[in-house]
């Protein structure tokens, strides 16, 4: 599965998964489509396969259909056409085993974290009343809010609010957690905290399906990703497989740009690009240490040498020919 050989409109991994694949998949969609009144197609024949145990990044620019997809998965909005299963079941049957965060739930500002979660839990018809206190305390502990459990919500920081929203999804044992942009609006510290929390939850065996419009975030947090563009799936697979078809470049920082470019060319590296204070080239099959040795051997002063692997942004640009920007 390589990303670059894909033709537009024919994303790999897009063939509808066989029925028996649903057993290993946390989410399978086939031809899932949502056309809103007024004709706009928000999600266009989407075929997703989310493996159990993955941290699956659902990546796309603003307006690319992420929230609409998640709302369909959670039964909050009906698809126009298409099929889907969650945890191998029709969504309505799976929902008690799914925790979700979509557009932060409304919490009461004057109630504490604990009191808010108790109210939240009381509204859940599948929750066992007698265990609510313990389950709420456990969920708060899970997201690192035990110390702030008695504090009023209005005094929570943004990161604490987001943790509480995730805790609300964790008051019952969940096999699948669906989080719509859980780091939205957080500062770098809060973002790091939520990312760490997602990894911890996944390490406990919960599949996490997390949307984001931040490429770097998905690269850091996720094992798999699907990339959306105006409602259509552009690519999906493991993070490594998504970029496996793209070239890795080497970047040499040096004051001897011309000499370095000549040496790289002699070595057989292609697409050598000199710029101010640095030269980059396609690494191809060359070992970076051999490139470095050759440069130094030819008297080039190497200040830095870095292997630049393709990012998910490169994947997106390579597949769509466009920058990763807001969709119309
Ligand atoms: N209720 C609605 N009625 C009409 N159009 C809608 C509705 N909800 C969403 N849309 C449109 O569907 C498209 C996809 O929206 P959606 O919210 O799913 O995108 P998103 O990927 O979640 O974006 P963001 O990153 O900004 O959250 C957008 O063009 C949006 O304007
Ligand atoms: Mg959204």
Walk me through this protein's architecture.
InterPro entries: AAA+_ATPase, ABC_transporter-like_ATP-bd, ABC_transporter-like_CS, P-loop_NTPase. Keywords: ATP-binding, Nucleotide-binding, Transport. One of its GO terms (molecular function) is ATP hydrolysis activity. Helix 3 (113-122) packs across helix 4, helix 4 packs across helix 5 (158-169) and helix 5 runs parallel beside helix 6. This protein starts with 24 loop residues before the first strand and ends in an 8-residue tail after the last helix. The model is unreliable at 1-22 (pLDDT under 50). The chain is of the alpha/beta class. It contains eleven helices and 14 strands. 31% of the residues lie in helices and 24% in strands. The chain folds into two domains: 19-243, 3-Layer(aba) Sandwich (Rossmann fold), CATH 3.40.50.300; 249-309, 2-Layer Sandwich (Alpha-Beta Plaits). It has a six-stranded mixed beta sheet, sandwiched between helices. Strands 1, 2, 3 and 5 form a four-stranded antiparallel beta sheet that branches. A hairpin with a 5-residue loop joins strand 1 and strand 2. Magnesium ion (MG) binds at residues 66-67, 180-181. Magnesium ion (MG) is lined by residues 66-67, 180-181.
